[in-house]
Amino acid sequence: MSFDSATIAAFVDGELDDLTARRIEREAATDPALAAEIARYRALTARLQRHYGPVVDETIPDDFLKLLGRADADAPAVDTSLAARRDAKRARFAPMHWGAIAAALVLGLTLGTRPWQGQPDIASSGGTLIAAGGLETALDTQLASNQGADAPVRIGLSFRDTQGRYCRSFSSSGTDGIGCRNGADWQIERTLPGAKASDYRQAASGELAAAAAAMMAGDPLDEAAERDARDAGWRR
Amino acid sequence: MRFEEQLIEILPRLRRFARGLAQSAADADDLCQAALERALKSQGQWQQGTRLDSWMYRITRNLWIDERRASGRRGPHDPIDDAVVQIAGDGADHVEAGTLRGDIDGAMARLPDEQREVVILVLVEGYAYREAAEILEVPIGTVTSRLARGRETLMSLLGEAA
Fold it and tell me: What's the rounded Cα separation, in Å, for the pair A186 and A184?
Protein backbone atom coordinates (compact mmCIF):
# COMPACT_ATOMS: atom_id res chain seq x y z
CA MET A 1 0.00 0.00 0.00
CA SER A 2 1.75 3.12 -1.18
CA PHE A 3 -0.63 5.70 0.28
CA ASP A 4 -0.43 6.93 3.86
CA SER A 5 -3.43 7.34 6.08
CA ALA A 6 -3.58 11.10 5.55
CA THR A 7 -3.92 10.56 1.82
CA ILE A 8 -6.55 7.89 2.28
CA ALA A 9 -8.48 10.19 4.60
CA ALA A 10 -8.21 13.04 2.12
CA PHE A 11 -9.42 10.72 -0.62
CA VAL A 12 -12.44 9.62 1.36
CA ASP A 13 -13.19 13.23 2.31
CA GLY A 14 -13.06 14.33 -1.31
CA GLU A 15 -10.04 16.53 -0.68
CA LEU A 16 -7.60 15.07 -3.18
CA ASP A 17 -6.85 16.55 -6.54
CA ASP A 18 -8.30 14.58 -9.43
CA LEU A 19 -5.01 13.09 -10.48
CA THR A 20 -4.13 11.63 -7.11
CA ALA A 21 -7.71 10.52 -6.55
CA ARG A 22 -7.62 8.60 -9.76
CA ARG A 23 -4.29 7.01 -8.87
CA ILE A 24 -5.65 5.84 -5.55
CA GLU A 25 -8.80 4.51 -7.20
CA ARG A 26 -6.74 2.60 -9.71
CA GLU A 27 -4.48 1.16 -7.07
CA ALA A 28 -7.39 0.20 -4.82
CA ALA A 29 -8.73 -1.93 -7.62
CA THR A 30 -5.77 -4.26 -7.28
CA ASP A 31 -4.70 -3.70 -3.69
CA PRO A 32 -7.11 -5.31 -1.23
CA ALA A 33 -5.39 -3.75 1.79
CA LEU A 34 -5.84 -0.29 0.37
CA ALA A 35 -9.44 -1.03 -0.62
CA ALA A 36 -10.17 -2.29 2.89
CA GLU A 37 -8.64 0.79 4.45
CA ILE A 38 -10.74 3.06 2.25
CA ALA A 39 -13.81 1.04 3.18
CA ARG A 40 -12.97 1.39 6.86
CA TYR A 41 -12.77 5.17 6.59
CA ARG A 42 -15.92 5.35 4.54
CA ALA A 43 -17.78 3.16 7.01
CA LEU A 44 -17.00 5.50 9.87
CA THR A 45 -18.27 8.51 7.93
CA ALA A 46 -21.42 6.66 6.94
CA ARG A 47 -21.98 5.54 10.48
CA LEU A 48 -21.65 9.03 11.91
CA GLN A 49 -23.96 10.41 9.27
CA ARG A 50 -26.56 7.77 10.02
CA HIS A 51 -26.33 8.60 13.67
CA TYR A 52 -26.55 12.38 13.45
CA GLY A 53 -28.52 12.67 10.22
CA PRO A 54 -31.99 12.28 11.78
CA VAL A 55 -31.46 15.36 13.96
CA VAL A 56 -32.22 17.61 11.01
CA ASP A 57 -35.61 16.01 10.60
CA GLU A 58 -36.67 16.70 14.15
CA THR A 59 -39.28 19.36 14.68
CA ILE A 60 -37.73 22.72 15.29
CA PRO A 61 -38.68 23.91 18.78
CA ASP A 62 -41.26 26.69 18.76
CA ASP A 63 -38.97 28.82 20.90
CA PHE A 64 -36.50 29.05 18.04
CA LEU A 65 -39.11 30.01 15.52
CA LYS A 66 -40.55 32.62 17.82
CA LEU A 67 -37.09 33.98 18.39
CA LEU A 68 -36.71 34.29 14.65
CA GLY A 69 -40.05 35.97 14.28
CA ARG A 70 -41.96 33.12 12.80
CA ALA A 71 -45.06 32.31 14.78
CA ASP A 72 -46.35 29.45 12.69
CA ALA A 73 -44.26 26.53 13.64
CA ASP A 74 -45.53 24.31 10.88
CA ALA A 75 -43.94 26.13 7.96
CA PRO A 76 -41.19 23.82 6.86
CA ALA A 77 -37.67 25.02 6.55
CA VAL A 78 -35.82 24.14 3.38
CA ASP A 79 -34.75 20.60 3.77
CA THR A 80 -31.08 20.05 3.28
CA SER A 81 -31.01 17.07 5.55
CA LEU A 82 -28.88 14.04 5.09
CA ALA A 83 -31.96 11.93 5.49
CA ALA A 84 -33.61 13.69 2.59
CA ARG A 85 -30.48 13.23 0.58
CA ARG A 86 -30.39 9.57 1.41
CA ASP A 87 -34.05 9.20 0.52
CA ALA A 88 -33.44 10.92 -2.77
CA LYS A 89 -30.49 8.64 -3.40
CA ARG A 90 -32.47 5.57 -2.53
CA ALA A 91 -35.24 6.70 -4.82
CA ARG A 92 -32.71 7.26 -7.54
CA PHE A 93 -31.31 3.78 -7.31
CA ALA A 94 -34.48 1.86 -6.66
CA PRO A 95 -35.20 -0.32 -9.67
CA MET A 96 -38.92 0.36 -9.42
CA HIS A 97 -38.22 3.99 -9.82
CA TRP A 98 -36.44 3.43 -13.08
CA GLY A 99 -39.53 1.71 -14.36
CA ALA A 100 -41.60 4.68 -13.36
CA ILE A 101 -39.16 7.04 -14.99
CA ALA A 102 -39.23 5.06 -18.18
CA ALA A 103 -43.01 5.05 -18.15
CA ALA A 104 -43.16 8.76 -17.42
CA LEU A 105 -40.72 9.37 -20.18
CA VAL A 106 -42.70 7.46 -22.72
CA LEU A 107 -45.72 9.48 -21.70
CA GLY A 108 -43.73 12.66 -21.61
CA LEU A 109 -42.29 12.04 -25.01
CA THR A 110 -45.67 11.24 -26.45
CA LEU A 111 -47.58 14.02 -24.83
CA GLY A 112 -44.94 16.58 -24.18
CA THR A 113 -42.79 16.84 -27.23
CA ARG A 114 -44.10 18.55 -30.23
CA PRO A 115 -43.99 16.20 -33.17
CA TRP A 116 -43.36 19.03 -35.58
CA GLN A 117 -40.15 19.78 -33.77
CA GLY A 118 -38.52 16.68 -35.12
CA GLN A 119 -36.02 14.72 -33.14
CA PRO A 120 -37.00 13.79 -29.60
CA ASP A 121 -34.76 15.14 -26.90
CA ILE A 122 -34.10 11.85 -25.19
CA ALA A 123 -32.85 8.68 -26.77
CA SER A 124 -31.97 5.27 -25.52
CA SER A 125 -28.46 3.94 -25.90
CA GLY A 126 -27.67 0.44 -24.72
CA GLY A 127 -30.49 0.53 -22.19
CA THR A 128 -29.47 3.93 -20.88
CA LEU A 129 -31.42 7.10 -21.46
CA ILE A 130 -29.28 9.82 -22.95
CA ALA A 131 -29.89 13.37 -24.08
CA ALA A 132 -30.30 13.92 -27.79
CA GLY A 133 -31.22 16.70 -30.17
CA GLY A 134 -31.77 20.13 -28.71
CA LEU A 135 -31.41 18.90 -25.17
CA GLU A 136 -27.98 17.46 -25.87
CA THR A 137 -26.90 20.67 -27.55
CA ALA A 138 -28.17 22.72 -24.62
CA LEU A 139 -26.41 20.52 -22.06
CA ASP A 140 -23.22 20.66 -24.13
CA THR A 141 -23.08 24.35 -24.77
CA GLN A 142 -25.61 26.46 -22.90
CA LEU A 143 -24.49 28.34 -19.80
CA ALA A 144 -26.93 28.95 -16.99
CA SER A 145 -25.55 32.44 -16.65
CA ASN A 146 -26.14 33.28 -20.26
CA GLN A 147 -29.33 31.88 -21.67
CA GLY A 148 -32.18 33.60 -23.38
CA ALA A 149 -35.50 33.82 -21.58
CA ASP A 150 -37.12 32.00 -24.47
CA ALA A 151 -34.51 29.23 -24.75
CA PRO A 152 -36.38 25.96 -25.35
CA VAL A 153 -34.19 24.24 -22.78
CA ARG A 154 -33.25 26.05 -19.62
CA ILE A 155 -30.21 24.98 -17.65
CA GLY A 156 -30.54 25.12 -13.88
CA LEU A 157 -27.63 23.98 -11.80
CA SER A 158 -24.35 22.57 -12.95
CA PHE A 159 -22.43 20.53 -10.44
CA ARG A 160 -20.21 17.50 -9.93
CA ASP A 161 -21.73 14.40 -8.48
CA THR A 162 -20.14 12.05 -5.99
CA GLN A 163 -18.60 10.08 -8.84
CA GLY A 164 -16.95 13.24 -10.11
CA ARG A 165 -19.14 13.50 -13.18
CA TYR A 166 -20.48 16.82 -14.35
CA CYS A 167 -24.24 16.97 -14.01
CA ARG A 168 -26.68 19.66 -15.06
CA SER A 169 -30.32 20.11 -14.23
CA PHE A 170 -32.52 21.29 -17.04
CA SER A 171 -36.11 22.09 -17.82
CA SER A 172 -37.91 22.09 -21.11
CA SER A 173 -41.47 21.90 -22.27
CA GLY A 174 -41.27 18.13 -22.63
CA THR A 175 -39.16 16.99 -19.73
CA ASP A 176 -37.32 18.36 -16.72
CA GLY A 177 -34.45 16.44 -15.34
CA ILE A 178 -30.78 16.03 -14.57
CA GLY A 179 -28.20 14.86 -17.06
CA CYS A 180 -24.77 13.61 -16.09
CA ARG A 181 -21.84 13.49 -18.42
CA ASN A 182 -20.81 9.94 -19.12
CA GLY A 183 -18.12 9.70 -21.76
CA ALA A 184 -19.51 11.57 -24.71
CA ASP A 185 -23.14 11.33 -23.63
CA TRP A 186 -25.38 13.06 -21.16
CA GLN A 187 -26.96 10.25 -19.23
CA ILE A 188 -30.40 11.18 -17.97
CA GLU A 189 -30.37 10.51 -14.26
CA ARG A 190 -33.60 12.01 -13.18
CA THR A 191 -36.68 13.16 -15.01
CA LEU A 192 -39.98 14.81 -14.30
CA PRO A 193 -42.57 15.63 -16.87
CA GLY A 194 -42.00 19.22 -17.89
CA ALA A 195 -44.95 21.49 -17.40
CA LYS A 196 -45.77 25.01 -18.28
CA ALA A 197 -48.29 25.69 -15.54
CA SER A 198 -46.36 27.66 -13.00
CA ASP A 199 -47.44 25.68 -9.95
CA TYR A 200 -46.28 22.47 -11.54
CA ARG A 201 -43.12 24.14 -12.59
CA GLN A 202 -42.45 25.26 -9.07
CA ALA A 203 -43.09 21.84 -7.59
CA ALA A 204 -40.90 20.27 -10.23
CA SER A 205 -38.05 22.69 -9.73
CA GLY A 206 -38.17 22.08 -5.99
CA GLU A 207 -38.02 18.37 -6.50
CA LEU A 208 -35.25 18.70 -9.04
CA ALA A 209 -33.27 20.94 -6.74
CA ALA A 210 -33.64 18.37 -3.98
CA ALA A 211 -32.53 15.62 -6.33
CA ALA A 212 -29.57 17.73 -7.42
CA ALA A 213 -28.65 18.45 -3.81
CA ALA A 214 -28.68 14.75 -3.11
CA MET A 215 -26.36 13.98 -6.00
CA MET A 216 -24.02 16.88 -5.53
CA ALA A 217 -20.50 16.67 -4.17
CA GLY A 218 -19.59 20.11 -2.88
CA ASP A 219 -21.15 23.27 -4.18
CA PRO A 220 -22.72 23.91 -7.56
CA LEU A 221 -20.40 25.34 -10.19
CA ASP A 222 -20.27 29.10 -10.27
CA GLU A 223 -20.36 31.04 -13.49
CA ALA A 224 -16.64 30.78 -14.18
CA ALA A 225 -16.40 27.12 -13.26
CA GLU A 226 -19.36 26.31 -15.46
CA ARG A 227 -17.75 28.07 -18.38
CA ASP A 228 -14.42 26.34 -17.79
CA ALA A 229 -16.08 22.95 -17.57
CA ARG A 230 -17.97 23.56 -20.79
CA ASP A 231 -14.88 24.77 -22.58
CA ALA A 232 -13.06 21.63 -21.46
CA GLY A 233 -15.83 19.48 -22.92
CA TRP A 234 -17.25 18.45 -19.53
CA ARG A 235 -14.42 16.01 -19.07
CA ARG A 236 -13.80 14.93 -15.53
CA MET B 1 -34.52 36.75 1.99
CA ARG B 2 -34.70 38.11 5.49
CA PHE B 3 -31.83 37.33 7.80
CA GLU B 4 -34.17 35.48 10.16
CA GLU B 5 -35.50 33.35 7.33
CA GLN B 6 -32.01 32.42 6.30
CA LEU B 7 -31.36 31.38 9.88
CA ILE B 8 -34.45 29.20 9.87
CA GLU B 9 -33.16 27.49 6.76
CA ILE B 10 -29.92 26.46 8.34
CA LEU B 11 -31.41 25.73 11.73
CA PRO B 12 -31.88 21.98 11.20
CA ARG B 13 -28.22 21.57 10.33
CA LEU B 14 -27.15 23.87 13.10
CA ARG B 15 -29.05 21.73 15.58
CA ARG B 16 -27.26 18.67 14.28
CA PHE B 17 -23.91 20.37 14.70
CA ALA B 18 -24.84 21.42 18.24
CA ARG B 19 -26.00 17.89 19.03
CA GLY B 20 -22.66 16.55 18.01
CA LEU B 21 -20.83 19.09 20.14
CA ALA B 22 -23.00 18.99 23.23
CA GLN B 23 -24.08 15.35 23.13
CA SER B 24 -27.37 15.79 24.94
CA ALA B 25 -30.36 17.13 23.04
CA ALA B 26 -31.29 19.59 25.77
CA ASP B 27 -27.78 21.03 26.01
CA ALA B 28 -27.61 21.21 22.24
CA ASP B 29 -30.81 23.20 21.98
CA ASP B 30 -29.70 25.56 24.74
CA LEU B 31 -26.55 26.08 22.75
CA CYS B 32 -28.53 26.68 19.56
CA GLN B 33 -30.76 29.16 21.27
CA ALA B 34 -27.79 31.07 22.62
CA ALA B 35 -26.22 31.06 19.16
CA LEU B 36 -29.38 32.39 17.53
CA GLU B 37 -29.64 35.16 20.09
CA ARG B 38 -26.02 36.06 19.54
CA ALA B 39 -26.50 36.03 15.78
CA LEU B 40 -29.53 38.30 15.93
CA LYS B 41 -27.64 40.71 18.11
CA SER B 42 -24.54 40.78 15.95
CA GLN B 43 -26.33 40.57 12.63
CA GLY B 44 -24.43 43.64 11.45
CA GLN B 45 -21.17 41.71 11.61
CA TRP B 46 -22.26 39.14 9.10
CA GLN B 47 -21.16 40.08 5.63
CA GLN B 48 -23.81 39.59 3.02
CA GLY B 49 -22.53 37.24 0.36
CA THR B 50 -20.47 35.15 2.74
CA ARG B 51 -21.79 31.87 4.03
CA LEU B 52 -24.22 32.34 6.83
CA ASP B 53 -23.97 28.70 7.85
CA SER B 54 -20.22 28.94 8.41
CA TRP B 55 -20.71 32.11 10.40
CA MET B 56 -23.38 30.47 12.53
CA TYR B 57 -21.25 27.38 13.11
CA ARG B 58 -18.42 29.61 14.25
CA ILE B 59 -20.69 31.45 16.68
CA THR B 60 -22.11 28.20 18.00
CA ARG B 61 -18.74 26.60 18.39
CA ASN B 62 -17.24 29.61 20.15
CA LEU B 63 -20.15 29.76 22.58
CA TRP B 64 -19.68 26.08 23.27
CA ILE B 65 -15.99 26.44 23.94
CA ASP B 66 -16.65 29.43 26.21
CA GLU B 67 -19.21 27.46 28.10
CA ARG B 68 -16.89 24.49 28.47
CA ARG B 69 -14.09 26.70 29.70
CA ALA B 70 -16.34 28.47 32.17
CA SER B 71 -17.55 25.21 33.62
CA GLY B 72 -14.07 23.75 33.69
CA ARG B 73 -14.95 20.85 31.45
CA ARG B 74 -12.69 20.42 28.53
CA GLY B 75 -13.34 16.88 27.56
CA PRO B 76 -11.88 13.81 29.12
CA HIS B 77 -8.28 14.42 28.17
CA ASP B 78 -7.88 18.10 28.79
CA PRO B 79 -6.00 18.59 25.58
CA ILE B 80 -4.54 22.02 25.12
CA ASP B 81 -2.31 20.94 22.32
CA ASP B 82 -2.99 18.22 19.80
CA ALA B 83 0.40 16.75 20.46
CA VAL B 84 -0.45 15.73 23.98
CA VAL B 85 -3.60 13.84 23.16
CA GLN B 86 -2.99 10.41 24.51
CA ILE B 87 -5.91 8.49 23.25
CA ALA B 88 -5.34 8.68 19.55
CA GLY B 89 -2.60 7.98 17.09
CA ASP B 90 0.03 5.80 18.66
CA GLY B 91 -2.01 5.74 21.81
CA ALA B 92 -5.05 4.29 20.11
CA ASP B 93 -4.38 0.93 21.65
CA HIS B 94 -4.71 2.40 25.13
CA VAL B 95 -8.43 2.02 24.74
CA GLU B 96 -9.70 -1.41 24.21
CA ALA B 97 -10.66 -1.82 20.59
CA GLY B 98 -14.35 -2.15 20.00
CA THR B 99 -15.32 -1.45 23.60
CA LEU B 100 -17.96 1.01 22.51
CA ARG B 101 -19.21 -0.91 19.53
CA GLY B 102 -22.47 0.67 18.49
CA ASP B 103 -22.31 3.48 21.03
CA ILE B 104 -21.52 6.46 18.88
CA ASP B 105 -22.52 8.98 21.52
CA GLY B 106 -20.23 7.25 24.00
CA ALA B 107 -17.36 7.15 21.56
CA MET B 108 -17.80 10.80 20.58
CA ALA B 109 -17.91 11.77 24.24
CA ARG B 110 -14.47 10.23 24.66
CA LEU B 111 -13.00 12.58 22.08
CA PRO B 112 -11.42 15.82 23.17
CA ASP B 113 -13.60 18.78 22.17
CA GLU B 114 -11.07 19.92 19.60
CA GLN B 115 -11.25 16.61 17.78
CA ARG B 116 -14.98 16.17 18.13
CA GLU B 117 -15.79 19.47 16.49
CA VAL B 118 -13.56 18.70 13.52
CA VAL B 119 -15.07 15.24 13.15
CA ILE B 120 -18.55 16.72 13.08
CA LEU B 121 -17.74 19.56 10.72
CA VAL B 122 -15.96 17.39 8.17
CA LEU B 123 -17.51 13.95 8.48
CA VAL B 124 -21.07 14.83 9.45
CA GLU B 125 -21.61 18.32 8.08
CA GLY B 126 -19.47 17.67 5.03
CA TYR B 127 -17.32 20.79 5.16
CA ALA B 128 -14.10 20.88 3.21
CA TYR B 129 -10.93 20.98 5.32
CA ARG B 130 -10.39 24.58 4.31
CA GLU B 131 -13.91 25.57 5.33
CA ALA B 132 -13.62 23.77 8.65
CA ALA B 133 -10.33 25.56 9.26
CA GLU B 134 -12.02 28.89 8.60
CA ILE B 135 -14.91 28.11 10.92
CA LEU B 136 -12.56 27.02 13.69
CA GLU B 137 -10.00 29.71 12.90
CA VAL B 138 -7.10 27.30 12.92
CA PRO B 139 -4.59 26.32 10.22
CA ILE B 140 -5.68 23.60 7.83
CA GLY B 141 -2.93 21.30 9.11
CA THR B 142 -4.49 21.48 12.55
CA VAL B 143 -7.80 20.38 11.07
CA THR B 144 -6.26 17.39 9.33
CA SER B 145 -4.24 16.27 12.34
CA ARG B 146 -7.18 16.58 14.73
CA LEU B 147 -9.39 14.80 12.26
CA ALA B 148 -6.88 11.99 11.89
CA ARG B 149 -6.64 11.48 15.63
CA GLY B 150 -10.36 11.70 16.17
CA ARG B 151 -10.97 9.26 13.41
CA GLU B 152 -8.47 6.72 14.65
CA THR B 153 -9.95 6.88 18.12
CA LEU B 154 -13.50 6.47 16.87
CA MET B 155 -12.59 3.58 14.59
CA SER B 156 -10.81 1.93 17.44
CA LEU B 157 -13.58 2.45 19.99
CA LEU B 158 -16.35 1.49 17.65
CA GLY B 159 -14.57 -1.53 16.30
CA GLU B 160 -13.48 -2.35 12.82
CA ALA B 161 -16.91 -3.25 11.55
CA ALA B 162 -17.96 0.37 11.59
Answer: 7
Nearest to B13 by CA among B147, B121, B155, B146: B121
Query: Any chain A CB within 8 A of the CB of B9?
Result: yes
Instruction: Measure CA of the first residue to CA of the last residue in chain B; give whole Å.
Output: 41
A177-188: pLDDT as tens digits = 889 998 888 988
Per residue in A119-150, pLDDT (tens digit) is: 457 777 777 778 888 888 889 888 887 787 77
A73: in domain: no
Range of the domain at A26: 5-66
User: Is A192 among the domain residues?
Assistant: yes
Higher pLDDT, B153 or A110: B153
DSSP state string for A51-79: HHGGGGGSPPPHHHHHHTT---TTSPPP-
| Contact (Cβ atoms closer than 8 angstroms) between residue A157 and residue A168 | yes
Q: Nearest by CB to B19, from A52, A78, A80: name it.
A: A52
Asked if B146 contacts B79 with a C-beta cutoff of 8 angstroms, the reply is no
Residues in A lying within 8 Å of B, measured between beta carbons: 5-6, 9-10, 13-15, 40-41, 43-49, 51-53, 55-58, 60-61, 63-65, 67-70, 77-81, 218
- For residue range B67-100, list pLDDT tens digits in order: 888 776 655 544 444 433 444 444 444 455 566 6
- Look at residue A128 and give its three-state secondary structure: strand
ipTM over 0.90 threshold: no
A72, part of any domain: no
3-state SS, residue A175: strand
